[in-house]
Write a structure and sequence with these properties.
Blueprint lengths: L1 E5 L5 H4 L6 E3 L8 E4 L15 E4 L9 H6 L3 E3 L6 H16 L2 H10 L6 H8 L12 E5 L3 H12 L3 E5 L5 H7 L4 E2 L3 H4 L5 E4 L13 H6 L4 E5 L8 H9 L3 E6 L4 H4 L4 E3 L8 H21 L9
Length: 305
């Protein structure tokens, strides 16, 4: 009998897949399996019986991979399970940055008591008008599960897509879309893009990858979207670029004190993968991976062994 502990709320759609060989426990110290979403495991003591950890999501920076590998504990993630949810929020972010929808909605709320609000709105609306995304160029950094969906959706909306991925190639990019323009250097992506969206993992190599040098290569009035990890963007460099009027908007899913002080930042409270469907998909995949591993040693999406 394997005992399963959930460090976060895990969708019932996943937990109901556990068969008679598993039971849930509230005591992490007796766990054979840990299911986790965002809880930080770095300071945790490793339970003596722990055999597997499954992250219901793609990022694993909240999990001590090497420490668990040394203890013989396999760690799994669920790449792609929440990709559509993130893709949809990226599209929403582009539209929010292109047309001042948030400002327009707030104007209506602020003038709710005006009996002539309809007429007043006709005069006020010019300040919220904005531009369209059709015909614009989107630069996609990272052509994995999420980046691929974003590229398809952007093309369907009439955008030109330029893609970069250090682990891909022009041939692989052509399999995503024959219209996708693949570049091997970000210096070739930045000057073309009206919008830049980041879809790479947080690693020591990618920390601060969008800094002063990258921002200097981007078009004036660029929109930067970050639904990957906040550490990918150098907040100080971005603040300077925004204050200089070079960046039209920064759309991010990660609130922090620096971001909240930025002019023209659209900050979302980490909603990227927070849909009912995404949480169900992640939980189902995580449970299936753990059960396969404990049944016969199958290591699907194992990230530390």
């Amino acid at each position: 009998m394997y005992k399963v502990h959930c460090l976060n709320n895990i969708s019932a759609k996943g937990l109901e897949l556990l068969d008679e060989n598993y039971r849930l426990t509230d005591n992490v110290e007796e766990a054979d399996v840990i299911l986790v979403r965002s809880a930080n495991m770095h300071e945790m003591d490793i339970p003596a019986n722990l055999k597997a950890v499954a992250r219901a999501g793609a990022g694993v920076n909240n999990i001590p991979l090497e420490k668990l590998a040394e203890a013989g504990v396999a760690v799994f993630n669920t790449p792609g399970a929440n990709a559509n949810a993130v893709k949809e929020l990226v599209l929403a972010g582009m539209l929010l940055a292109s047309r001042d929808i948030i400002g327009g909605v707030q104007w209506c709320r602020d003038n709710a008591a005006d009996e002539n609000i309809g007429k007043a709105a006709e005069k006020a609306k010019k300040q919220f008008a904005g531009t369209e995304i059709t015909g614009k160029t989107l630069g996609v950094i990272g052509l994995g599960a999420i980046g691929k969906l974003v590229a398809w959706a952007a093309e369907a909306l009439g955008m030109k897509v330029v893609g970069y991925d250090p682990y891909s190639s022009a041939e692989k990019a052509a399999e995503i879309s024959p219209n996708l323009v693949y570049v091997e250097d970000l210096a070739d992506l930045y000057p073309q893009a009206d919008f830049v969206t980041i879809h790479v993992p947080a690693t020591p190599a990618t920390k601060g990858m969008v800094g002063a040098e990258a921002l200097a290569q981007m078009k004036d009035d660029v929109v930067l979207l970050n639904f990957a990890r906040d550490t990918l963007v150098d907040d100080a460099a971005l603040t300077a670029a925004m204050e200089a009027g070079r960046v039209r908007a920064y759309v991010t899913d990660f609130a922090n004190p620096a971001v909240m002080q930025m002019p023209r930042a659209i900050v979302i409270p980490h909603l990227g993968a927070s849909t009912e469907e995404a949480e169900d998909n992640c939980a189902i995949m995580a449970v299936q991976e753990v059960m396969a591993y404990l049944a016969d040693g199958t290591k699907t999406h194992c990230v530390n062994m």
